């Protein structure tokens, strides 16, 4: 076998080896199984999907939350962990129950019953949030940074 053929085989082998090592981790939101998944903040089952949230790390580790307020508290407590800083964060749209990026959602804070009574609801559009707000006199519109910095007043 000539030197050129050995070089070609070496390059092809190296390419195959490296492509096998660089598998992409799925950082998309994962389904919630209410019979198995437990919120790490309050240790409650996740039953009402309208208020659910998720953190998916770059390594594929998933934390699931029953209340957007629980998600916010968890992030505050663990904000310095490198895995958390690089994570994808999702919440459910209250109306459609589709996953949306937490940073892109519009939130309403009101006196409404959420699983842990934080009263925070996420929407995929500002229009949907405005429509919901009209039904709740005390409602306040928030963005994700405001949710993260708001004082959460629930004790476990």
From TrEMBL:
Pfam families xref list: NosL
InterPro entries assigned: N2O_reductase_NosL
Name of protein: Putative lipoprotein involved in nitrous oxide reduction
Keyword Lipoprotein: yes
PROSITE patterns the record matches: PROKAR_LIPOPROTEIN (PS51257)
SUPFAM superfamilies the record matches: NosL/MerB-like
Signal peptide annotation: 1-27
UniProt keyword terms in alphabetical order: Lipoprotein, Signal
Taxonomic source organism: Desulfosporosinus meridiei (strain ATCC BAA-275 / DSM 13257 / KCTC 12902 / NCIMB 13706 / S10)
């Amino acid at each position: 076998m000539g030197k050129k053929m050995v070089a070609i085989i070496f390059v092809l082998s190296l390419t195959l080896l490296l492509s096998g090592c660089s598998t992409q981790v799925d950082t998309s939101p994962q389904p919630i199984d209410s019979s198995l998944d437990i919120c790490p903040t309050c240790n409650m089952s996740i039953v009402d999907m309208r208020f659910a949230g998720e953190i998916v790390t770059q390594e594929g580790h998933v934390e699931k939350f029953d209340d957007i307020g629980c998600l916010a508290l968890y992030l505050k407590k663990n904000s310095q962990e490198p895995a958390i800083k690089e994570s994808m964060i999702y919440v459910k749209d209250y109306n459609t129950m589709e996953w949306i990026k937490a940073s892109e959602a519009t939130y309403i804070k009101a006196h409404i019953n959420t699983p842990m009574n934080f009263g925070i609801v996420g929407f995929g559009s500002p229009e949907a949030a405005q429509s919901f707000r009209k039904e709740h006199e005390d409602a306040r519109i928030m963005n994700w940074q405001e949710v993260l910095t708001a004082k959460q007043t629930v004790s476990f």
